[in-house]
Amino acid sequence: MVNLIDLPLEILSYLPLFIRNIEDFTEAASTCRTLYVAFSITSPNCILRLAAASAPTFSGPHPHFLIAATARQISDWALSNAENTQRLRLAFQSGVEGLLELCIEKAGLTQKDIRRLHSARFSIINPLADKIDKMAGEQWYQADNFWNVNSLEAYLEPKKNLPKFDLGVRLDYIKYCIPDWTCRSYPGLEVLSVGPYSEIGRINLPADQIALRHILSCRRWTRLWQSVTRAIGPDFVEDQWKQKLWLDAVQMQGLEGMKALGENGVQERRVHLIRLRSLIEKMDRGDEPLKHFIGTRLQAQVSHAPDFPNEVYVCMAGLRGRMIGQAANGLSTV
User: Fold this and answer.
1) What is the C-alpha separation between 22 and 111, in angstroms, rounded?
2) Strand 291-294 to strand 300-303: parallel, antiparallel, or no bridges (unpaired)?
3) Is 110 left (phi over 0), alpha (psi -120 to 50) or beta?
4) Mean pLDDT for the chain overall
5) 3-class SS shares of the chain: helix, strand, coil, % to 5
6) pLDDT band (50, 70, 90) for residue 143
7) Which stretch of 1-15, 27-41, 179-193, 212-226 has the lowest confidence by average pLDDT?
8) Counting Cβ atoms within 10 Å, is residue 142 exposed (0-12), middle (13-18) or buried (19+)?
9) Taken in order 129, 135, 138, 141, is the CA torsion positive or negative?
């Protein structure tokens, strides 16, 4: 009689395809050296699917934790061509669950990633959640994952002509993946009646953009990140546009970037942060990102570079935009 572990490693490596979730996967891998070696060559996509099957026990807050963990991969995939970018925008329209489906389809996690993410829940997510709770109260527990990993590198190094998401893609993410009852179409911003804004979806929409805007604009949040930037170098007092880029840059580095808020976090990220600041310091006036005005009535100014606080504002300003439009007989167009 042939024992399971007597099978070739190539065959044993397919076993994870039939395992229920990531807990069963890790427990099976720890039973003996043979399975440990066989499971070490499991495809990252298979491991991601097992992690998703364990949610929310393993990967809470779900689904935002896994999306944050794979956002860089999805970003790189989407930026590779226009067709992929459009596919990403369509995924946004199905809300955060649609985005997770795309992540599961196109991304993956290694066993090393799983260990790192498990540690991040306790060293990064939980402490940061406590800080945010003091800023937004109970709304935080209903709010979607707000960190934006869109890279500013394309704007910090314009001469490299790096691919980047335009403002429309970034606004689609906020509109559909961080839904809010105030987010409605107005002259200059279109919100489709899909996903969270379908007839059924709108019944119980949260106020996530409102809570998020409050967090991003409150002094406690700003002071958190100023403690990071000032540990690297002084503020850009004379060039406020550089100071804004600098503050935005340190906040838009994904889960790894959030390590900077932890104990000894600045030291761990010091080399990377010094590089970011150096890039901004070398920029001249001609490198300042252009500004875009949303609509003809609201006239909210948003940078072409990732400008998360103002991007959230123009999305949640739907009610105000409609009121302004109605005051102008509702005939305004962009």
Assistant:
1) 10
2) antiparallel
3) beta
4) 84
5) 65, 5, 30
6) very low
7) 1-15
8) exposed
9) negative
Q: Whose CA is closest to 95, among 200, 204, 181, 173?
A: 173
Report residue 121 as tokens: 């829940």
Specify the residue for token string 């030291």.
Answer: 267
Q: For residue 324, what pLDDT is reported?
A: 53
Residues in the chain: 334
Residue 23 amino acid letter: E
- CB contact burial 111-129 (16+ within 10 A = b; e otherwise): bebbeebeebeebbbeebe
User: Between residues 258 and 328, which one has the greater pLDDT?
Assistant: 258
- Kindly tell me if the per-residue pLDDT of 334 is higher than 80: no
Element (H, E) at 26: helix 22-29
301 forms bridges with which residues in the sheet? 293
Which tokens in the block code for residue 262? 């932890």
Confidence of residue 333 (pLDDT cuts 50, 70, 90): very low
Domain ranges (residues) in the chain: 43-327
What token pair was written down for 13? 């490596």
